[in-house]
Amino acid sequence: MPMNPLFNRGAVALLALLGPLLSGCSTPAAPPPQPLTLHIAHINDHHSQLEPIAGAELRLDGVPTQVELGGFARLTALFRQQQAAQPTLLKLHAGDAVTGSLYYTFFKGEADARMMNTVCFDAFALGNHEFDDGDGVLRGFLDHLHAGTCQTPVLAANVVPAPGTPLAPNGPAVLQPYTIQTIDGVPVGIIGIDIVGKTVNSSRPLATTQFLDETRTAQQTIDTLKARGVRHIVLLTHQGYDADRAMAAALTDVDVVIGGDSHTLLGDFSAQGLPSAGPYPTVVNNRDGDPVCIGHAWEYSKAFGRMEVQFDTRGAVTRCGGQASLVIGDQFKRKNAAGVFVPVDDATATALRSRLAEVPQVRVTVPDAAAVQVLSGYAGQVDAQKQRLIGTATEALCLVRVPGETTNRSGALAGCEMANTLARGSDAAQVVAEAFLAASPRAEMALQNAGGVRTGIGAGPLSMNTAFTVLPFTNVLVELSLTGAQIVAALEDAVANHLDQRQSDGSHPYAAGLRWSLDLRQPAGQRFSQVEVKDRATGRWSAIDPARTYVLVTNDFIAAGKDGYATLGAATAAGQAVNTYRLYTQTFADHLQRLQRVGRVPASEVSHQRVTTGAGAVLP
């Protein structure tokens, strides 16, 4: 394992040791310090991606090669192998275990919890997506996590649920600020920190659940552990690589940060054809000038992180090293003379496996049999739901966020080669908005944010899997009573969010029963003109009346003011919203089933009737 020499704490550590004696503090003296080597294995952001990714392309031996990448059962095998070699191994998960696949859609964390218990983590830190369906659903996931013998500590020092709520019931605590593990007789503190802004603004925690400042809480908890005689501190965070580096530099007495949230791959993977964000481990200095070792392990069960940290007798980090490794299967495909990926012959496969055994960036791994069996019980149910056909797309429904954007998000779909250059924008978002309107008899128009629609739709059969892939979250439909002026203001909010506030362009609006002209050259508040509403009874279009009250149906995410939709958030807060509790994915699936054959919305019905780009081009 490669090792990097670092500096010692020196006098600072000595003062920390003698401080209580010099001050007359009554805190019990720490046990005599000992040298320690800490072995850590970790993952993050697996996002319910429990199955391997077939046909992933890497460069192996300099040759483009398709492999089976990841899969949680392979991670289980690696954790068990590592623990057999290092019995004192710390097994850590840095959050965002859930949301992102049908395993979460159908099982709400049960499948993830059971797979996590095949590893039996020593600590799990909450991430923002753990709160996507609120504190109650999160509690259900954690109950499944604690249903077996593992009883993995769930860490979140800066999350404070209100007493009597799902995460703070009467009885044993559900969340802990930290846990202390004893390694070779030495106490090691592990502190959980969750990202505040993203969790509060983009997920759905209870309003009564408090989220405290990440850095301030981390330092306070470190100080608490120090007072208990704990000198070796690991932060288990879910806030992103850049935030981890900044936090480490602002804290005293932190030794290791194992993080998540930014889906960061660390290490040199240039030979495999993958970019990375920095070295593994990344080393920064804390506020005392002491080294801090930082590790992240990419995403979606694709990578496995291993870190080794050496401490001297003063509890100072002297060396840290390790490797994040891509986890792959033992079968390979390469292009034949016709340019088609086909399985390699047995001799080539055997030779390649032998060479990869010497490449630390790649771990060829046989899935753990027990974990495979656990997953198979859920996979059969998911497969049955996935395969159910619900309609046919007569043509490709292209995915675009902002008409005229330089990126063609669905360029690989036949029929979408020029989609980003056209005024109509996202066919997929348009059809989703039409589905919302069809599901709401009261509404006169429907609104959908572009980023909430995750994929384009190719021509051909449509299954339940199509619906849940396009709309993978668990939003519901909300009906808002709004004046025409508020509706136009909401449209302006959406575009200002990405043009002026430099936030995500996923806020860009698409609508059914509502159409407009958009001029991206204009200043905020003046970009929308010729806004018209369609009468559902007569089919006639007329100019929106600023003073009239309309009913608009949308998803509860933007109705709450998320993605920059401040006007909608204010209306909801003022009591102008009615929650229908209709799952938005189900309404989309129902719409496809009802139509049976779905195509692009006619040109006269699309929301973007005319678009002028920021450069002054009028899109066709």
What's this entry about, in short?
The chain is of the alpha/beta class and 620 residues long.
Please tell me about this protein's structure.
Helix content is 27%, strand content 27%. Strands 1, 2, 5, 6, 7, 16, 17 and 20 form an eight-stranded mixed beta sheet that branches. Residues 1-28 have low confidence and may be disordered. A hairpin with a 5-residue loop joins strand 14 and strand 15. It is an alpha/beta fold. The N and C termini lie far apart (58 Å).
Distance between the termini: 58 Å
Helix fraction? 25-40%
Structural class: alpha/beta
The biggest sheet, with number of strands, parallel, antiparallel or mixed sense and barrel status, is: 8 strands, mixed
Cα-atom radius of gyration: 27 Å
Count all strands and give the number: 32
- How many helices in DSSP terms? 16
Shape: globular
Unreliable stretches covering 5 or more consecutive residues: 1-28
Q: How much beta, percentage-wise?
A: 25-35%
| Mean pLDDT score | 91
SSE topology:
Elements: E1 3-5, H1 11-23, E2 36-43, E3 53-60, E4 63-69, H2 72-85, E5 90-93, H3 102-107, H4 110-116, E6 123-125, H5 134-145, E7 154-155, E8 159-160, E9 178-183, E10 186-194, H6 197-202, E11 210-211, H7 214-227, E12 232-238, H8 241-250, E13 256-258, E14 282-285, E15 291-295, E16 303-311, E17 317-328, E18 333-335, E19 341-343, H9 346-356, E20 362-364, H10 369-386, E21 389-393, H11 427-438, E22 445-449, E23 460-463, H12 464-470, E24 476-483, H13 484-499, E25 509-512, E26 514-519, E27 528-534, E28 541-543, E29 549-555, H14 556-559, H15 566-573, E30 577-583, H16 584-595, E31 597-598, E32 608-612
Parallel strand pairs: 2-5, 5-6, 6-7, 10-12, 12-13, 13-15, 17-20, 21-31, 22-29, 26-32
Antiparallel strand pairs: 1-17, 2-16, 3-4, 8-11, 9-10, 14-15, 16-17, 18-19, 21-23, 22-25, 24-29, 24-30, 26-27, 27-28
